[in-house]
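ok posting inputs for the calcium ion job
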Amino acid sequence: MRLLLVEDDTMIGEAVLEALRGAHYAVDWVRDGAMADTALASQDYDLMLLDLGLPRRDGLQVLRALRARKSTLPVLVATARDAVGDRIAGLDAGADDYVVKPYDIDELQARIRALLRRGAGQAGPAFEHNGVSLNPATREASVQGAPVSLSAREWAVLEPMLARPGVVFSRAQLEEKLFSWKDEVSSNAVEVYIHGVRKKLGADVIQTVRGLGYLVPRS
Ligand code: CA
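and the output
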């Protein structure tokens, strides 16, 4: 899953970036509202963590513009502990949830998992389909109830497809889920990880759609 982190405080940004990358998300970090607009226009994200007090263009403006474009991107806004008014304004502007600063990193991660799950229409804690289960909180993968050990990259390539069965992902889209701006990407990376997933979970877990990409079949 690829996340956009919008945070102008360097120390907070670095800490959150490290924590989210440690949880195997691909994360892009921008430090002002104008750059957030640019990032949103150029990349497909699964979630945005948005600070409200930002230089150049504040978080509420970024959020209102995003919703005016009819985007359903899950958005978590960050506000100061005593700023109840900001939380209300954020939710009313289209945020899905909020976190208070200073962040409790574990709570932040749990709220991110909850929003990603809800975005995928999953009721339980795991992404489940066709006997395959990925639980982002425990990092446990299983097929027909039998535990399987996936590498972080194999997980990252399977998770977005498992979250949206029947939807075709191009190689470029999967690369976006796997890597942030600064990462070096080898040309066959996606194929390598898909091969690994098939070897561990079964060949038909991920289908190739010739000329288009890959999908987790609907049933
Ligand atoms: Ca700020």
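notes: The pocket of calcium ion is lined by residues 8-9, 51, 53-54 (CB under 6 Å). Residues 105-119 form the longest helix (15 residues).
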